[in-house]
């Protein structure tokens, strides 16, 4: 039982780590409207293909995105739109509050 709780915590941390990169957040937002080919994601994030593939692999390994093959193309999509509830939970108000608390500790 304790092992399962620890495993769940580690997996949650893995998800938050995957969400901690602005490029990956941009990719997820781009995929919000539906599946996209890597060839569409590359110009959107303005990165080279190997970098985009690395970011997609991280998201895929957490189960956040999936892909299907269509000929030579890989089409990526969100596995569960509830991931956006987590992302959108970081509201401007929360950011302002946390920033203020952080600055208080510095000063």
Work out the radius of gyration: 16 Å
Continuous helix count: 6
Largest sheet: 3 strands, antiparallel
Low-confidence stretches: none
Shape descriptor reads globular
Beta-strand content estimate: 5-15%
What labels describe this entry?
3 strands, 107 residues, globular, alpha+beta, 6 helices
What's the structural blueprint in terms of helices and strands?
Layout: H1 2-18, H2 22-31, E1 36-37, H3 38-45, H4 49-61, E2 65-70, E3 73-78, H5 83-88, H6 92-106
Antiparallel strand pairs: 1-3, 2-3
Describe the structure.
With 107 residues, the protein is an alpha+beta fold. It contains 6 helices and 3 strands. A hairpin with a 2-residue loop joins β2 (65-70) and β3. The protein has a 3-stranded antiparallel beta sheet with strand order 1-3-2. Helices cover 64% and strands 13% of the residues.
